[in-house]
Amino acid sequence: MPVDALVFFIRPNSRAKGNYENHAISFRYKLIKLWELPARNFVTGEAALLPFIPLMRNGERYIEKARKRIENAKEFSGEEKRSLLTILYMYTAIKDPDQAEALLEETRHVMFESPLYDLIKQEGKLDTARNMIFRFIEVATNFEFTELPVSVLLEAGLLRKS
Predict the structure, then answer these.
(1) How is the chain split into domains, by residue range?
(2) 159: helix, coil or strand?
(3) Rounded to the nearest 10 degrees, how much is the dihedral formed by the CA atoms of 100, 121, 55, 106?
(4) Dist. CA 148–CA 20, nearest whole Å
(5) How many CB atoms lie within 10 A of CB 87?
(6) Looking at residues 3-27, what average pLDDT do you find?
(7) Are 20 and 27 in contact, with CB atoms under 8 Å apart?
(8) How many CB atoms sit inside 10 A of residue 91's CB?
């Protein structure tokens, strides 16, 4: 059977083209420019594509319908629904953070039970730990070499307040 390679673009990109070439390989693929696809055509279609609705043309009008379809879809387990809803929220936030926040407030409990959310939360903890380590090193290094108190370094804008 023939196989088509697809590349999905979630934001407009003037450099997007349907092939990649270098000195050793040449690769052709179909571009799917989500921002050009009319969201209304997908709201009643394949449920697995519903998380992409916010990225499509006029998608903001159909986010609530997409959310309800995902929640009521019989073909997905509870875990799959929670993951699809988490992705829907993330893509909504790319287009309209205020709309994403309102959507999240309505169904916050659903997202928090998602395995995808657990991964995001874990990554956030790792980022926090990294930032704390770098700040500690920054404070220790500045103090060691300048012998200035942290308050002076903060006031001078040399350190960020956490």
Answers:
(1) 1-36, 41-113, 117-155
(2) coil
(3) -30
(4) 53
(5) 17
(6) 86
(7) yes
(8) 21
CB 39 within 8 A of CB 79: no
Between these two residues, 158 and 142, which has the higher pLDDT value? 158
Residue positions counted in the chain: 162
For residues 131-160, one letter each, b for 16 or more C-beta atoms within 10 angstroms of the residue's C-beta and e for the rest, the string is eeeeeeeeeeebeeeeeeeeeebeeeeebe
Placement of tokens 């519903």 in the chain: 50
Contacts of 28 (CB under 8 A, 6+ apart): 5, 18, 19
Instruction: Write out pLDDT tens, residues 81-125.
Output: 888 888 888 888 888 888 878 777 776 666 566 666 666 666 666
Q: Which residues make Cβ contacts (< 8 Å) with residue 93, sequence separation at least 6?
A: 100, 101
Q: What is the pLDDT at residue 66? A: 94
The CA-based angle 57-61-66, given to 5 degrees, is 95
Dist. CA 162–CA 130, nearest whole Å: 13
Q: For residues 103 and 93, what is the distance between their CA atoms, to the nearest angstrom?
A: 10
- Expressed in percent and rounded to 5, the helix, strand and coil fractions of the chain are 60, 10, 30
Tell me the pTM. Answer: 0.61
